[in-house]
Give the backbone structure.
Amino acid sequence: MSSKIRTRMGDGELVAMSPSEIREDIAVGTGDAADKAGVPQLTDEEQERLYEIIADPSRIVSVGPGNEVVVTDDGVPGSFYCGQDDSGVGIPLSRGQATLTYERVCAADTVSMGHSDYSFKPVKNVISNETNDYYNISMDTTAPFIYGAQPNLGSYYQPDGPVRNPADLLLGGDVKAAQEAQEEAAEKMRQDILYCGRKLNDVGCEGLNLDTSASGGDADFMGTLQVVSELKEEAPGMPVIVGASGEFVLGMHGEVTFNDKQLAGMYPHDQVKVAEEAGVSIYGVAIGTSTNESLAWNVARSVTFTKAAVSAANIPVHVNVGMGVGGVPMCEVPPVDALTRATKSLVELGKADGL
Amino acid sequence: MGGIRTTGDLVAWMQLARKMKITEAKQYVADKLGIEVSTLTDEEEMRRLREELGIGTIISVSGSPKGILAKIRISELLGIPINSVELFKSQLS
């Protein structure tokens, strides 16, 4: 009988590993996260429990009864009718049909809608279409119905947007101009999100999701947190979810702050605290998957970051577990064996409030 | 958690509206429903209870509340304002 365990690499490839190899990867993975973020690594007992989850011979695994958590989504109904770019399955459904199918066929805890060009900048141009659809569909949904889009600071830079591209400015060594360009773009982004948020609140929006925040670095995160604060003042009845884009806020600017805290370099346990200060209802941590490492290494690392963030937070923390985040392999169709091992670990060991 | 098949939507409402962590949100919903936390994900029990309370069922029962009417009842049951419900009520009056 083989002592090898059927598992995956971070790119989804099926591999066979020995128990000692898996245990070693768990130890190295949790150590990597702990070193980078300055948080505790998983205890020996937790590492052994994680080994049991990874090595479970079942095709799929699940949490025990009573440990179930809420799953929020970022545009799943859209993937019912979209194409490959959005991991869509291309069924000719309307947005309303897709949303209700997700609620009543898939038994989703929350449902959502968003523009196919999933950023606030293009949404602003068609906001009346979006609010019309949102209002109509919200009359039929029972579960929380969330409108989502990305802040996406990068869409404001030339050639796609109006602001000088900081990457070009940095190439020329003009750091100051690159910083100013990011601040200018962040202000335009903040205004667009505020505009869309107000319009959605006017039609009874039950939740706004600022998805994949900080993808453009620390200035992106700053603009996101600023607009959440403003929306919470103006529209306190509209909960706001903020999802991260990675475990580390890139210092593309390097000096921007929120409530006097430098944003560059923040790991999930610090990100969630500034999100909390801004008024966020649910924060979605995102931890990147390394395709060169094993499932065990990636999940151990994700659980370590998550556990620290949940421990630091007074608000619910949901972990992003799509392709390439949260320990889930980076491939177009994430294998269900790897996906369920990642989610079970994040809930049972990371103590996540949701996914 | 099973959405409107069980109580996933109700627990999600509490996380969104009151920023409750998962354990607190589940306990709150269980208390409001008068059931044990372990019953929150019991499809058989929740199918009956959701129809009885008029808060929407996964199976489409003809004439039974769903959509905005179910959300009005959920808002009252959980004691939380829901933006769409508040708008709808304001339009009625």
